[in-house]
Design goal:
Elements (H helix, E strand, L loop, with lengths): L12 H12 L13 E10 L4 E10 L5 E10 L10 H12 L8 E5 L11 H9 L3 E5 L17 E6 L2 E7 L8 E7 L3 H10 L8 H10 L4
Parallel strand pairs: 1-4, 4-5
Antiparallel strand pairs: 1-2, 2-3, 5-8, 6-7, 7-8
Length: 221
């Protein structure tokens, strides 16, 4: 069951920015995951010339990562494409997918950012707050922040910093392959986020639940 609505959807950037700033103060950065028996990957693509968001949630059993269910949700796109505001385009479709699950996952791995965001509220943080679930952002590219050079071996990492504040981790998940940008979304620490990402990898760059969600979210009719 999806929890009650966290807020109404804003219709303009100014309202969206204010909402992000207000919600960011509610994000928890401690490891309050509780008992985890299922993890899910979350990703979103687009259909109908970009007018419809197509979200996928792929739920796996933990710790053996056996696939349990994969669902698709759709919603009209009502917010413009602006970096830093993608959750307002994608989350209605993700929430539509969540209500189709037999059971909500205990932990969310989102293709996108957590607190590694200019206002500390990327999609993983936004979704984690809405569902009151531990959530982690796994970005393929950097949205903000800076970091030192990352070693070339699997598991090598560097903190992602915004000034003096750590906002994530640049993590090499596969040797000599581009790193990913891991950040806590909600109810997970920096170290906890990295540990979960490493634990859900197979032999690919992205965690297995996100890979599964990406395949289905990007599929076109």
């Amino acid at each position: 069951m999806v929890t009650a609505a966290l807020h109404e959807w804003p219709g303009d950037v100014r309202s969206a920015r204010g909402l992000q700033q207000a919600l960011a103060g509610r994000v928890r950065l401690d490891d309050a995951t509780g008992r985890v028996t299922t993890v899910a990957g979350v990703d979103t693509g687009f259909e109908a010339g970009g007018h419809t968001a197509r979200a996928c949630v792929a739920r796996f059993r933990w710790p053996d990562l056996t696939p349990l269910e994969t669902v698709i949700g759709r919603a009209p796109v009502t917010f413009p494409y602006i970096p830093g505001y993608l959750s307002f385009r994608e989350m209605p479709a993700i929430l539509d997918a969540m209500v189709r699950l037999e059971q909500l996952p205990d932990l969310l791995l989102c293709d996108g950012q957590g607190i590694a965001h200019p206002r500390r509220l990327g999609i993983a943080s936004h979704l984690g707050l809405w569902l009151d679930r531990p959530a982690i952002g796994v970005g393929k590219s950097r949205l903000c922040g800076s970091h030192e050079e990352v070693g070339e071996q699997r598991g090598d990492q560097q903190p992602l910093m915004d000034g003096d504040t750590r906002i994530g981790t640049v993590l090499r998940t596969r040797s000599r392959v581009k790193p990913v940008f891991v950040s806590p979304g909600h109810r997970v620490s920096h170290d906890g986020a990295v540990a979960w990402v490493m634990a859900t990898l197979s032999r690919y760059r992205l965690p297995e639940p996100i890979r599964a969600a990406d395949r289905e979210a990007s599929r076109r009719r």
